[in-house]
Design goal:
The complex is a heterodimer. Chain A is an all-alpha fold. Chain A contains 18 helices and 2 strands. Chain A folds into 2 domains: about 70 residues; about 325 residues, ABC transporter involved in vitamin B12 uptake, BtuC (Orthogonal Bundle). Helices cover about 75% and strands about 5% of the residues of chain B. Classes of the chains: A mainly alpha, B mainly alpha.
Chain lengths: ~425, ~300
């Protein structure tokens, strides 16, 4: 104990002082302006708390690391073997839960679940790019925006319905992916990340500035909701002679129907994404993605065309982003460039990373967790992004492979 | 001089001012990349924190009744450099050092997380709204015909240029002459070999973060004084542009970062003047994309051959 204090005390004092420097100018002092009179307001409490915490943690880090050493985070989370064994069962359970959810949960909960499903689509789409092909895309939101604006604009100018626009959005987003991906995909990892980030920002800036086409910062409103084979979900049909859902089935009008219907579409699209990406992974092109991620030079020497393979991953991922975007536009009924900022790309990337790159089950769980948690912890709303950033860092330190790491086929030799 | 050349001169002045600031921030990116090969995505936030600390110090000095401009400037820069250096050091210690040896993606994601964290940390502490910074140095010179276009060179612009040149010279001397500077150069050439030869590479890496953060703080204070408005979100866009500048000049090269910053500043001011202000960010990003595509090594960078 004596030795512990002698060894750790000076270092702990220094760290507490460092904490003071880090917290005083941000949390401790605030500028206060009243009647053109500028004054500084001091509040020592957060500074003292932070200093005390850092001091104690550093001082007792030896006994603390013994305790944390016993509770290994790796052991708390399921191992990859366990996952391989129960993967199908888990997925089936999740799908069943998702199917009965709208009929048991409240209206608000269904609405949040719809949002979660949008993130599931985005996460699974980006998972193709980042997880399978190992290409870090920081501008994924660009394709989300392309999908959303395709639907909104096609509907405004040509009166196309959601179901007509959905395939067009998918194709347009995929084509944008091809167009942007073709020149940049030969860049190495982090250069690619920055260029895609640049593209994401360029698209957002264009949406913001091409006022005549996109409505600029005001965005586009009055985007119609999807219909069920032409049946509208509204109190009254919007067009002359149109039939609404409740009229057709002779039901009483209920606003919750729309929400449940949107949820079911989202679920359908998310399952479609899951199914397609799952199948793709087992096709030659999917194998090539993974091989390329592991060793590009080896792939090239085996006769694979890296650019083509990367391009296929990039544009397929982009098409799913576009699909999610079209649905997003339909759900919101209103879009503007504010919904497509870098932070959105970062959230989708965090979903993929936290879930476990390449692991579809992990991505789904992470998407649900990241949309549900802020809703549960409403009173911490201010700290949401702060905690979010912190989790990203801590996950990279403690479990860089994600919550449920992807499993790859392997065999063990009998001993 | 004709009117067009006067307008041109004005754009050059504005561009060089802006470019000096980008160059100061870009140094931090280029040094870190040169030594450990990672993009310190949170560097822009360090610059933003520098601007906030500068605002607080200037306000505090004003309340203490200090009115001498040079004293205020020197004290502000000193305190800002000190505080952001601690931020830079902690950043590396907490978010990057435990990840060393992992794939580059891991460090980049951690850096993005740190960037989001710092942005929201300042937002919680200081509020999300714009805060105004009192102009410390006002006025300037005007040239040109009395009834035509006049070129305006403010004292603040001169101050920015002088401060930038001063700090760049100090940095260049430090890297070229001092013992630690030599260690930095050795680490940039070959980190493992430098380690084998007895250089404390952890210390050198910490030092690059501290130096980069210090220069970013200088840029933050200067920007605050130049534009007069700061908010917690200025770090993101400035960071990306400074990174563009670093790539433009050849990432890993310190003179390259300076040159890249100036070129980017000029490009931006010309776009604002001759095309439209709204597209100046688009031009900066396009420049980044084109440089990476056609000359990934930048203007002054060395080619980087990928080996098995």
């Amino acid at each position: 104990m004596d030795e512990l204090l002698r060894r750790h005390l000076p270092e702990s004092v220094v760290m507490a002082l460092v904490t003071a420097v880090l917290t005083i100018p941000i949390l401790g002092v605030r500028i206060h302006i009243e009647n053109l009179q500028v004054t500084l307001e001091g509040d020592g409490t957060p500074v003292y708390i932070a200093m005390a915490v850092v001091f104690l943690v550093r001082l007792f880090r030896a006994p603390l690391s013994q305790i944390t050493g016993m509770v290994r985070i790796d052991r708390l989370l399921p191992s990859s073997d366990w996952l391989t064994r129960y993967r199908t069962g888990l997925l089936a359970a999740m799908i069943v839960l998702a199917l009965i959810w709208p009929f048991v949960a409240s209206r608000g909960a269904v609405d949040i679940a719809t949002l979660a499903l949008i993130y599931v689509m985005l996460g699974l789409g980006l998972n193709i790019v980042v997880g399978f092909a190992g290409l870090l895309d920081l501008g994924y939101v660009a394709f989300y925006a392309v999908g959303a604006y395709s639907y909104a604009l096609l509907n405004q100018h040509f009166g196309l319905s959601f179901w007509e626009c959905l395939p067009i959005s998918i194709v347009l987003a995929g084509a944008t992916g091809c167009l942007l991906g073709f020149p940049v995909l030969r860049l190495r990892g982090d250069y690619l990340a920055i260029v895609t980030l640049g593209f994401g920002e360029i698209i957002r800036l264009l949406l913001n500035n091409l006022d005549e086409l996109t409505g600029g910062p005001d965005g586009i409103g009055n985007i119609p909701k999807p219909t069920l084979f032409g049946l509208e979900f509204a109190r009254r049909a919007s067009t002359e002679g149109g039939v609404t859902f409740h009229d057709f089935f002779g039901l009483r009008y209920d606003g919750a129907d729309t929400i449940i219907f949107l949820y079911l579409i989202a679920l359908l699209l998310a399952l479609f994404t899951l199914f397609v990406s799952n199948r793709l992974l087992r096709m030659p092109v999917g194998r090539a993605w993974e091989a390329l991620r592991e060793d590009e030079i080896a792939c090239r020497s085996l006769g694979l065309n890296p650019t083509l393979i990367k391009l296929s991953a990039f544009s397929l991922g982009a098409s799913f982003g576009g699909m999610a975007g079209a649905f997003f536009a339909a759900r919101q009924g209103f879009i503007n460039p504010e919904s497509f900022t870098f932070i959105e790309s970062a959230i989708v990337l965090a979903i993929v990373v936290l879930g476990g790159m390449g692991s579809q089950l992990g991505v789904i769980l992470a998407a649900v967790a990241l949309t549900a948690l802020p809703e549960v912890a409403r009173q911490f709303d201010e700290y949401r992004m702060l905690i979010f950033g912190l989790i990203m860092v801590l996950m990279m330190i403690w479990r860089p492979q994600g919550l449920l790491p992807a499993t790859r086929p392997r065999m063990e030799l009998p001993q | 001089m004709s009117e067009t050349s006067l307008v041109l001169l004005q754009q050059v002045i504005n561009g060089l001012t802006l470019g000096s600031i980008y160059a100061l921030i870009a140094i931090g990116y280029t040094m870190v990349y040169g030594i450990i090969g990672m993009i310190n995505f949170a560097h822009g936030e360090v610059y933003m924190i520098g601007a906030y600390v500068g605002l607080l110090v200037i306000t505090a000095l004003g309340l203490l009744g200090i009115t001498s401009v040079p004293v205020i400037l020197l004290l502000t820069l000193a305190v800002c450099i000190l505080v952001t250096s601690v931020f830079g050091w902690t950043l590396e210690r907490v978010a990057y050092r435990p990840l060393r040896g992992n794939p580059r993606l891991v460090a980049l994601i951690s850096a993005i997380g740190m960037s989001i964290f710092l942005q929201n940390y300042v937002q919680i502490g200081q509020g999300a709204r714009d805060v105004a910074m009192q102009p410390l140095v006002s006025g300037g010179w005007r040239f040109g015909p009395a009834n035509g276009f006049q070129v305006y060179l403010s004292y603040m612009q001169v101050l920015i240029a002088v401060t930038t040149v001063l700090f760049m010279t100090l940095l260049t001397l430090f890297i070229a002459r001092s013992r630690m500077g030599r260690a930095c150069r050795a680490c940039a050439q070959d980190l493992d070999m430098a380690n084998l030869l007895g250089i404390d590479t952890d210390r050198v890496i910490s030092l690059t973060f501290v130096l980069g953060a210090g220069l970013a703080a200088v840029a933050g204070v200067l920007v605050g004084l130049y534009y007069g408005l700061i908010n917690p979100f200025i770090g993101f866009i400035a960071g990306i542009k400074a990174f563009t500048a670093a790539v433009l000049g050849g990432i890993g090269s310190i003179p390259g970062a300076m040159l890249g910053g100036l070129v980017l500043g000029l490009a931006e001011s010309f776009t604002s003047a001759y095309l439209s202000t709204e597209y100046k960010d688009v031009v900066a990003f396009l420049l980044l994309v084109f440089v990476l595509l056609f000359r990934p090594t930048g203007l002054l960078g060395k080619p980087d051959v990928e080996k098995v």
